[in-house]
């Protein structure tokens, strides 16, 4: 897909996201319940059964130390000074996320990543690895065969694609051994947290909840936290939270934001971003944004009507090659991006022009460069 098509698609995306077309969303899709969260787990382990693609023991001595320590715990005592040249083991880091309300005996997925110089973990088996939390307590134990993505063959073996082979996953590869206590609210209140801070959306949630339940059930503490008065009985509280989560609101339109990928020149905007009067000169390109008055007068001998002056924005883009584009109408960023691309502006040109417009105060949006 060409850069022009990409920019054109993103421009239309910004035009389509107008306030009148914002669909209703469930409260559960834009908020989370305070205290209901996952916890990160980490562990160090060994992968065995590799087909000569493991760590080179001379350059990764911790692999040899780990296998010797493990064998000692299993009752196998190695002679002192032995030099093990193993190519089918690899030292790995194992990570997982322990979901909220996870109980002992449940299974969770784990990710296994090589930390030595192994060429591939494909075909390996992770040995029993304890997974610890931030408090250094063991919360799960992982073990199992790795599944490595990124390797595949084409029809009749004519083509082979191999991507990253030093990381893999084990589906349901860890068993939870300890639960993390999760407090579902404090006392008679629970707290909803907006994923994105917005005072208008917080007000809408309060109004929606109070219209469905007794007045005063919901109170906005700030632009992110909404305090909800909930039943004390745990069963009733779960039912109450379920009803709250499924209420629908029309969230407020977020602040105007423009994201630019400096390498590819891709531009993403979350709504129609307007531009104020300004002029930018960059190399052989110039962009002029101004406002022209349009005068509307009543017809001759008309007994009614009056003269009306309506300001109308106009974008003028020029280049040294003689290209000229006049864009009457609303001065929005989508039109400028399409016009610049049409006359052959490079991603670097586009980036410099948008930065200049932002610095001049003409670009009325947050500009983020990635």
UniProtKB/TrEMBL annotation:
Signal sequence, renumbered to the chain: none
Compartments in which it is found: Bacterial flagellum basal body
Query: What biological-process GO terms show up in the record?
Result: bacterial-type flagellum-dependent cell motility
Keywords carried by this UniProt record: Bacterial flagellum, Cell projection, Cilium, Flagellum, Signal
Domain of life according to the entry: Bacteria
What GO terms fall under cellular component here?
bacterial-type flagellum basal body, distal rod, P ring; outer membrane-bounded periplasmic space
Q: In its keyword annotation, does this UniProt entry include Signal?
A: yes
In terms of Pfam families, this protein maps to: FlgI
- An MF annotation (GO) of this entry: structural molecule activity
Give the family from UniProt.
Answer: Belongs to the FlgI family.
Q: What does this protein do?
A: Assembles around the rod to form the L-ring and probably protects the motor/basal body from shearing forces during rotation.
State whether it acts alone or in a complex, and with which partners, per the record.
The basal body constitutes a major portion of the flagellar organelle and consists of four rings (L,P,S, and M) mounted on a central rod.
The protein's name in its UniProt record: Flagellar P-ring protein
């Amino acid at each position: 897909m060409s850069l022009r098509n990409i920019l054109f698609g993103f421009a239309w995306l910004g035009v389509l996201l107008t306030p009148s077309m914002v669909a209703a969303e469930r409260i559960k899709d834009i908020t989370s319940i305070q205290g209901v969260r996952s916890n990160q787990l980490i562990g160090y382990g060994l992968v065995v059964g590799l087909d000569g693609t493991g760590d080179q023991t001379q350059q990764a001595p911790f692999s040899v130390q780990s296998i010797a320590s493990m064998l000692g715990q299993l009752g196998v005592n190695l002679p002192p000074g032995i030099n093990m040249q193993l190519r089918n083991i690899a030292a790995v880091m194992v990570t997982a996320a322990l979901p909220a309300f996870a109980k002992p005996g449940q299974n969770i997925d784990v990710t296994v990543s090589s930390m030595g110089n192994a060429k591939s973990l494909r075909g390996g088996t992770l040995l029993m690895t304890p997974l610890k939390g931030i408090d250094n307590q063991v919360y799960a134990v992982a073990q199992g065969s790795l599944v490595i993505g990124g390797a595949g063959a084409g029809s009749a073996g004519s083509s082979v694609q191999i991507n990253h082979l030093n990381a893999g996953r084990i589906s349901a590869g860890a068993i939870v051994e300890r639960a993390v206590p999760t407090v579902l609210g404090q006392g008679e209140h629970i707290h909803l947290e907006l994923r994105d801070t917005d005072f208008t959306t917080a007000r809408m949630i309060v109004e929606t909840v109070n219209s469905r339940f007794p007045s005063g059930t919901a109170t906005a503490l700030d632009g992110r936290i909404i305090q909800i008065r909930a039943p004390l009985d745990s069963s009733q509280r779960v039912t109450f939270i379920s009803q709250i989560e499924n209420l629908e609101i029309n969230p407020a339109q977020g602040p105007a934001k423009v994201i630019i990928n400096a390498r590819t020149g891709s531009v993403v905007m979350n709504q129609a971003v307007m531009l104020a009067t300004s002029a930018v000169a960059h190399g052989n390109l110039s962009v002029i944004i101004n406002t022209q008055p349009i005068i509307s007068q009543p017809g001759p001998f008309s007994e009614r009507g009056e003269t009306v002056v309506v300001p109308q924005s106009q974008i003028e883009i020029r280049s040294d090659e003689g290209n000229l584009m006049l864009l009457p109408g609303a001065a929005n960023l989508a039109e400028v991006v399409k016009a610049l691309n049409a006359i052959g502006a490079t991603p670097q040109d586009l980036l410099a022009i948008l930065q200049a417009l932002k610095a001049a105060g003409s670009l009325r949006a947050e500009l983020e460069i990635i």
